[in-house]
Write a structure and sequence with these properties.
alpha/beta
Length: 563
């Protein structure tokens, strides 16, 4: 591999990791130069964590390490959980590490700690040092963990999927800050993670390697995934109609005795025709998952109306709701959580069929179970297995087969491929699309990955704190999103640094006016006054943004004055 200079902080030659009978990693050779960022991608089980632990001198017991690992200078490993000591303040942990690694006294260590936190854009950095890790939000905790590692001035930083659970916008900003800091200080950074975007193309990494089947491979170069073939807009009446839907959860009474509520979905209206696809895009807390569940009456709304084929689901009696359940099915982020771990897959499939679509005979019943598995590419032997014995890709396909058994007309997907990586994820989503087109299913697809949502659905809604901030055809959004929040989601999906600053606001204390104004680079004084309404800026394209609406009005006035 390229970059094998003798002076590199990390140089690996012919590294192999073996157990008694298995080759876990096979003859890996690469190097990371000072100030360079090497992105190491690979699916679950590819060996990324094992490699980083071996480089840190922490290979598991029973694993034989062959080959040469040359490290010049101090090395620090940041694990997947970004573990900090929960019983000690951040300041105490900085002082302890910097005293051991650099021999700094307490006062100097605390000053360097505050500087490191400020470098990672942690607000009120000196005051944060008095807090324990559990008193920080997830994004701030990750910034503190990486600042702690960088404050020790390592020559080599090994980061194992840092901040993988954060929203794409937060993670892209965090990784961008980390990469910039390592380049500035001359630290070599080996950044491991699941395939997501192209770190080299986005500028996050200088180069990228892929780990597959225990070997390093150069990533395949090629264009970005092409969108699916354009589908005509549906011409029939909507099968699903949602009007002014509100979902809120009681928080008890305030100190004055008033009822307090957490509003998660705030007056949303959508329509979906037969065979139509709609993506719900947004960060954690945007309301997309709760909206998906409220449509299926898995979460009770406090206002509005959800109609399926003209039937109000909120007021439907039990028998009418059971008939509707045949048509309405959902895929969850963790398919195993939707299965009973004490029953076989076949028993649960049979229970679903008996409840929603009883078969006329036992033979017909068995045939339908086998057909369901065959449609998703699983062997009939899966029926005899318990959910815990399934691999993640098998569990996702089994969950899809389970949802298809009642022959639904609407499939609601809430991050259905969240547990999958790389080729497995792409294969599952391609299968989902093929089945949707063959069955002419309506599809509601909720995801944090804007690029994925725009590829899957013909139309998209962007949600922020329970409200729609942009609505348009997916091709329009991909080519020219108008809302700063939409642009940030699309940028972060490719690991490019989003223009937003700061972290998402708490739904418990949303800002006045526009919910994005505290993070938005385009915000002006008027954004704090009233929330923007969702208004058209072009045919079929609506945006809730004071700036975008002003631009649209200016464009309309110029067009009106033109001869």
């Amino acid at each position: 591999m390229s970059g094998s200079g003798e002076s590199a902080p990390l140089r690996v030659e012919g590294l192999s990791l073996l157990t008694g009978r298995d080759i876990l990693l096979d003859r890996l050779s690469f190097a990371v130069e000072s100030g360079a960022v090497l992105a190491l991608s690979g699916g679950a089980g590819a060996g990324k964590t094992l490699l980083l632990r071996a480089l840190a001198g922490l290979a598991p017991k029973g694993v034989t390490v062959l080959g040469d690992i040359h490290i010049r200078g101090r090395r620090i490993l940041v694990t997947q959980d970004g573990a900090l000591d929960p019983l000690r303040t951040l300041g105490a942990q900085f002082v302890d590490l910097l005293a051991r690694q650099s021999g700094l006294d307490e006062r100097t260590a605390l000053r360097r700690a505050a500087e490191a936190l400020e470098r990672f854009q942690v607000p009120a950095a000196a005051r944060q040092l008095a807090l324990h890790p559990h008193e920080l939000g997830e994004a701030l905790r990750w910034r503190a963990a990486l600042a702690l590692a960088m404050a020790a001035e390592p020559a080599l930083l090994l980061a194992d999927a840092p901040a993988a659970a954060l929203d794409p916008t937060q993670r892209a900003r965090l990784l961008g800050d980390l990469a910039a800091w390592t380049r500035e200080t001359g630290t070599a950074l080996l950044l491991a993670g699941r395939p997501q975007g192209d770190p080299a193309r986005s500028g996050l990494a200088d180069r990228r390697l892929c780990l597959a089947r225990g070997r390093l491979e150069a990533p395949a170069e090629g264009p970005a995934p092409a969108p699916p073939p354009a589908e005509p807009a549906p011409s029939g009446p909507p099968v699903l109609s949602v009007r002014d839907l509100r979902v809120a959860f009681p928080l008890g009474r305030g100190w004055r005795g008033e009822e307090r509520w957490l509003t998660v979905v705030d007056g949303l209206s959508i329509e979906l025709a037969e065979g139509e696809t709609l993506a719900l895009l947004g960060e954690t807390g945007s309301g997309k998952s709760v909206l998906a569940r409220a449509i299926l009456r898995l979460v009770p709304p406090v206002g509005g109306r959800v109609s399926w084929l003209g039937t109000d689901l909120a007021a439907a009696p039990p028998e009418a709701m059971r008939r509707a359940r045949r048509d309405l099915q959902i895929l969850f982020p963790d398919p195993l959580a939707a299965f009973d771990p004490l029953m076989t897959i076949g028993a649960q499939f049979a229970e679903t069929l008996e409840s929603l679509r009883p078969a006329p005979s036992a033979a017909n019943h068995a045939a339908r179970l086998a057909e369901a598995l065959e449609e998703v590419g699983l062997p009939a032997a899966v029926l005899d297995l318990y959910p815990g014995s399934l691999l993640p890709a098998e569990a996702a396909r089994a969950g899809l087969a389970h949802a298809l058994l009642p022959e639904p007309r609407l499939l609601v997907c809430d991050e259905p491929a969240a547990a999958l990586d790389g080729a497995e994820r792409a294969d599952f989503l391609a299968l989902l699309q093929a089945i949707r087109r063959r069955r002419r299913l309506a599809l509601l697809y909720a995801t944090q990955d804007a690029a994925e949502g725009l590829r899957i659905a013909r139309r998209a809604l962007v949600l922020l704190l329970g409200r729609i901030v942009e609505s348009a055809d997916s091709a329009v959004l991909a080519a020219g999103a108008r809302h700063p929040y939409s642009r940030a989601l699309i940028a972060a999906a490719g690991l490019a640094r989003p223009a937003l600053h700061g972290d998402p606001p708490s739904p418990l204390r949303p800002p006045t006016g526009c919910a994005l104004r505290l993070r938005c680079p385009l915000a002006h004084d008027g954004c704090a006054q009233v929330p923007p309404s969702l208004d058209p800026v072009a045919p079929g394209h609506r945006v809730a943004c004071h700036v975008a609406q002003d631009e649209a009005q200016d464009g309309a006035q110029v067009g009106a004055k033109a001869p």
